[in-house]
Amino acid sequence: MKNEFVVLVNLLKMEPSKQATVIEMLEASTRDVISRLQGWVSTRLIAASDGASVVIYSEWRSQEDIAMMRSDARLVAYFPKIRELATLESMQGHVVLSEAS
């Protein structure tokens, strides 16, 4: 099964004491900026139980839309604030299997 959307997965690692702040920042940027951008489909934030990481799982219509998001001036200014609190790893791909009960 191949999903037509491009999936962007970001893994942020931080000190557990910073997780709530990171989540608040991610929620605000998703609500106020990302969800209004061309090509955005959905975003899920997944918080690690130990507080040491957060995963951002988002779906976009194309890789070009992801590139436009990453170059948006509001987000370019926002990224350093996140990097003060967490490290960031990123990857793009497509869903090849999705099952649910």
List the topology elements.
Blueprint: E1 6-13, H1 19-32, E2 40-47, E3 53-60, H2 63-71, H3 73-83, E4 87-93
Antiparallel strand pairs: 1-3, 1-4, 2-3
Write a structural description.
This protein has 101 residues and is of the alpha+beta class. It has helices at 19-32, 63-71, 73-83; strands spanning 6-13, 40-47, 53-60, 87-93. It has one domain: 2-Layer Sandwich (Alpha-Beta Plaits), CATH 3.30.70.100. It is built from 3 helices and 4 strands; from the N terminus they run βαββααβ. Strands 2-3-1-4 form a 4-stranded antiparallel beta sheet. Strand 2 and strand 3 form a beta hairpin. The chain is globular and about 35 Å long.
What tags apply to this protein structure?
Alpha-Beta Plaits, 34% helix, 101 residues, four-stranded antiparallel sheet, alpha+beta, 4 strands
CATH architecture classification name: 2-Layer Sandwich
**How many structural domains can be distinguished in the coordinates?**
1
What value does the average pLDDT take?
95
CATH hierarchy, class: Alpha Beta
Shape: globular
Summarize the structure.
By secondary structure, the chain is an alpha+beta fold. Helices cover 34% and strands 31% of the residues.
